[in-house]
Recover the amino acids of this structure.
């Protein structure tokens, strides 16, 4: 986003997208346009402050040479916008959202918690969502055994040799993992959607336990 787009989109709760979302939805329905509006507006952006002391939005628009940072604190009624000057924090384009979690909400930073939330609430979002996850693979490594005495002919003095053996270890590493691999249920042909998939979508969407 540009600086002006930051002001327009995140300046107030009223302009965070709800009114524009409803207006566009109505226009698309009247025009009989099949438009996927989910994720196009900032509806719900301010819910981030429920678990955060501070929220920072760093963004670089292709229409601007500058990268801007929007910051606001949960207990404040104002926000700041500044130009990013730290070379290590510059991004080519796009937006980086940083939540400074409250002490009691640090658990939301755990990778498994993030992945579970995304699977529950963003599984059917039509664009890919990746999470930073710890992964591992197994490999064989050599380990030294205690030296074993081996008798030799000639001088009669025993010689020691080290026997080699291997064990399986898990090598840990971090990488991005696609979290929402399912195509949105409403974009698929009805005949291709099974009863189990309908039930799963219904239960997750409406927090129901029955089919």
């Amino acid at each position: 986003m540009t600086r002006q787009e930051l002001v327009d989109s995140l300046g107030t709760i009223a302009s965070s997208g709800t009114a524009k979302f409803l207006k566009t939805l109505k226009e698309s329905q009247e025009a009989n346009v099949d438009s996927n509006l989910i994720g196009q507006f900032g509806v719900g952006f301010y819910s981030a402050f429920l678990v955060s002391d501070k929220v920072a939005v760093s963004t670089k628009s292709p229409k601007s040479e500058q990268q801007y940072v929007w910051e606001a604190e949960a207990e404040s009624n104002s926000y700041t916008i500044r130009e990013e000057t730290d070379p290590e924090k510059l991004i080519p384009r796009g937006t980086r959202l940083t939540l400074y979690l409250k002490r009691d909400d640090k658990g939301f930073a755990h990778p498994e918690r993030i992945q579970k939330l995304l699977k529950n609430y963003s599984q059917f979002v039509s664009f890919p969502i990746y999470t930073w996850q710890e992964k591992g693979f197994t490999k064989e490594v050599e380990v030294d055994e205690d030296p074993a005495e081996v008798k030799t002919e000639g001088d009669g003095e025993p010689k020691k040799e080290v026997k080699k053996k291997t064990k399986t270890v898990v090598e840990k590493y971090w990488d991005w993992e696609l979290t929402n691999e399912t195509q949105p249920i409403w974009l698929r042909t009805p005949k291709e959607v099974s009863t189990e998939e309908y039930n799963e979508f219904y239960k997750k969407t409406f927090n129901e336990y029955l089919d």
